[in-house]
Every structure is written in structure tokens, then in C-alpha cells.
Amino acid sequence: MCDAIISPPSILIPTNLQISNLSFKPSIRTRYQNVHASANQNHPNRWSLQGMTALVTGGTRGIGRAIVEELAGHGAIIHTCARNESELNSCLKGWLDEGLKITGSVCDVSSPLDRKKLMNDVSCVFDGKLYILVNNVGTNIRKPMVDLTAEEFSTLMSTNFESVFHICQLAHPLLKASTTGSIVFTSSVSAFVSLKSMTLQGATKGAINQLTKNLACEWAKDNIRSNAVAPWYIKTSMVEQVLSNKEYVEEVLHCTPLGRLGDPNEVSSLVAFLCMPASSYITGQIICVDGGMSVSGFYPRHG
Ligand SMILES: NC(=O)c1ccc[n+]([C@@H]2O[C@H](COP(=O)([O-])OP(=O)(O)OC[C@H]3O[C@@H](n4cnc5c(N)ncnc54)[C@H](OP(=O)(O)O)[C@@H]3O)[C@@H](O)[C@H]2O)c1
């Protein structure tokens, strides 16, 4: 059963590309038509998410919250999740007061049972059609490789990678049913460059990057795109403690060409673009949101 069903308005996808003169074999022609049905330059809402349904995991704080608000601001209808029920309720109330269409579930994405319940809720609330899946939840345990325990290994793997793998599997029929699905993963620059005490976290994000590329190919036939955003230091609760060390922040700024930390809404804007019809030919890409950190090379002192 579903407590609050929101019925999103249908999205109109004009099939106004004229391809009738092309003489492809039937199978190729069908595929060509399917892909172009939703990927044309004349889409009436190229820069809008009006009426699209979206699941954003971890939407009560930080980057996830910015993504929820950004997508909702562009007209999407959102379902989100988090573990802390009172924080989730407080967010949902605030959003309702602002007139945003957002529902939520209490869910620990590292639990297989919770993931199944979450996707049941999503299917119920969105009537079986999901246009956007943002796999945002991730965590970090900063330790040298040799000090990580088996339990910590399991926590990082299940929260950062197993969860997104399974949620993608569960979401596939819903994304396919939308006929124009988009998945965005929250990766990290830790998947591109070596960061101190982040060997395992970087490996989980590296796995996400490869999943991003593989799904772009495997699910293209279902018109599902798959991309990832890879932030450097963004001001959120996750990094509050490490950024309370002023000397460390100086080091961070020195290896960041733009010479500052990022804001959550500098990540959410890219996520919104990757979900819009305007980005319909972009798939399998991992885009860094890092003030230039990952391309800085031998430029050790910025600022
Ligand atoms: N901030 C950065 O500098 C930075 C840099 C690179 C990559 N990232 C990535 O960006 C993503 C978001 O990070 P953030 O900095 O925005 O984190 P954050 O401020 O700690 O927010 C995390 C959000 O996810 C929820 N969450 C955490 N664990 C969860 C779980 N097991 N199940 C369900 N919900 C969970 C939290 O709510 P509850 O606690 O109530 O569950 C909260 O809503 C992560 O994937 C992270 O790896 C962040």
C-alpha cells in the first residue's frame, strides 16, 4: 500500500524527426527511431524537468538536499530517503511549506531489505515510472589501508557501492517504463587522483565510475542514460570535521586552482543539467566538479 500517491503529469515527447526516407533494416530503424524519439533538438522543454519523477537518495543534507531542491525547482516530483526520521520529516515539512512536491522514506541504503522497501515506495508513489535516479548517498572512513578493519571495509562497500548497484537493478523496470530515464551517480575526485587515507573510499568511487560507463552501454537500448558527477571538497556536514582544521584547509586550497571550496548547489546544477532533455546525447560521462583540482598536475601552490 502507498500512503500518498502523487500522479505526475505525462511528459510529451514529440517524435518530430523525419527519418522515413532512410532505408535501414527494420531492427536498426526501430532502434534509431527509439533513440531519437527523446533525443531531438526541438524538445519543447529542453531546459526543464517539468513533471518528471525522481528518486534522490540522501536528500536531507549537503549535496543530496541541494539536488532535491534543484530538481524540484526545475519542476521534477521528488522522492528522497535518509536514515534519520525526524530530520527527514522536518525537511519534508519545510519543502511542503515552499510548495515543492517531495515525499520521503526512512531508509538505510546499506540494507538490502530497506532498499527493496524504498523502491516499493517509489513505484507506488510514482505509479511505476521513474525518469530520474540520483544515487547520491556515500560515506567515508579516513584511515591508512592497513588500519581498515573488515567491518569498516564492509560498511564502505555496502554504503557506497553495493547500495547503488542494487538500487539500479531495482530501479531498472521503472526507468525503462518512463521511456527516457536518466541515472546520475555521485562519485568523487578520489576516483581520479590519490587522496591520503582514502584508498578504499576511492576504490568504491572508482567502481561507481565503471558502473556509470557500463550502464550507459547496457541500458542505452532502454533509452536510459547514465552519468556521474565527481566533487572535490564541497561544504557539507560530511566534511565539516576535517575542514575545521585550518592548516588542512590551506593545503586543500593550495591544490585547487580556483582557490576555494565548493558549494552543494555547484554540484546540483550539473546534476539537473544531466537529467534534462538538453543533455540527451550525453551518457557514460563522469564530470568533475572540483575547481580544477583533478587537472592541476604540477601546480602545487594555488592562491
Ligand atoms: N562533501 C564533499 O566534499 C564530497 C566530496 C566528494 C564526494 N562527495 C559525495 O557526495 C555524496 C553526498 O555527500 P555529502 O557531503 O552531501 O554528505 P552529507 O552532508 O553527510 O549528507 C549525506 C546525506 O545522505 C544521507 N545518508 C547518509 N548515509 C545514508 C544511508 N546509509 N542511507 C540513507 N541515507 C544516508 C544523510 O542522511 P542520514 O544521515 O539521516 O541518513 C544525508 O541526507 C556522497 O556520495 C559523498 O561521497 C562529497
From TrEMBL:
It comes from the Eukaryota. Keywords: NADP, Oxidoreductase. SUPFAM superfamilies: NAD(P)-binding Rossmann-fold domains. GO terms for molecular function: oxidoreductase activity, acting on the CH-OH group of donors, NAD or NADP as acceptor. InterPro entries: NAD(P)-bd_dom_sf (IPR036291), SDR_fam (IPR002347), TR (IPR045000). This is Uncharacterized protein.
